[in-house]
Amino acid sequence: MKCLLFTIILLSSTALAQDKGGKIPNNSAEYGPTRDLIENTRMSIVGKKFETLTIGDVQYANATVSKIDDAGIILIHSSGVAKYRWSDLPIAVKKAWGYHEGISEAAEKKEIEELAKLKEQRAAMARLTQIKQERDALLRRFEVEYDKFDRRTSYLRTPSEEPTESGLVFYIIVSDEDRKPVIYMKPIYVGKDWIFMDGLKFSGIDHKPIEFEAERESKAFPHLVEWAHIEADPEKLTDLLKNGTGIRFLGKYYVDLPFTESKKQELKDTLLLYDILGGEGM
Hints:
Layout: E1 4-7, H1 32-45, E2 49-55, E3 58-69, E4 72-77, E5 80-85, H2 91-97, H3 101-139, E6 142-147, E7 152-157, E8 167-175, E9 181-191, E10 199-203, E11 210-211, E12 215-217, E13 224-227, E14 230-231, H4 234-243, E15 246-250, E16 255-258, H5 261-276
Parallel strand pairs: 1-2
Antiparallel strand pairs: 2-3, 3-4, 4-5, 6-7, 7-8, 8-9, 9-13, 9-14, 10-11, 10-15, 12-13, 15-16
């Protein structure tokens, strides 16, 4: 088909008015010849090629009308693809290319709603992907083990202390039976003399000392080891994270440890994982 030179300019407000016959019913059977006329007009334009095509202030070279539907038009040109909604087109284009107010406005509204839903879905998928990435990164800071005998999973936050150093370890247990996470603290004393540890307290927060019966072993000579497993209250741990400044192991003798930034990060990670696993009471 020989290329045509076709320039469309935006008509003034004195241009021919749109058909005042009202909106066309949504039922296609009721469209009658008006709908047929619209479709025939569109079919006569689709596929046409133009050496130069001007729509509003934009000029396209070697343009082909690829599609015309109720929502608008699509052009393929030398620089790519252009899509217009009917509401963005000059009156001259609307008149010549098969626009109808009722049909086109309804189609445009539907398209905008669908695009908004698609945008929300993509945002939700992106957020889910981000959450999964953050969770995977968090889990890499834990030692995860499954106990087949007791049917439970433990999540031990890898401690910053060396095995030969005293410290406080945080971990979570999730039983297969109820799937509810429980946070535990494990105070570990390592030294050359027994302190007969039987309690734990923190500076910077208002709470009573935690009492317990510690286990002891001397197999790690020259280091003696004392430890205990203590179920922890998430709310008190949150208070500890915000306001705690120090740790004291109580016993016949006592040992003070600083509540370091690395230890705070371990506690923060544990509380975050507790929340992800469905913990309550924070």
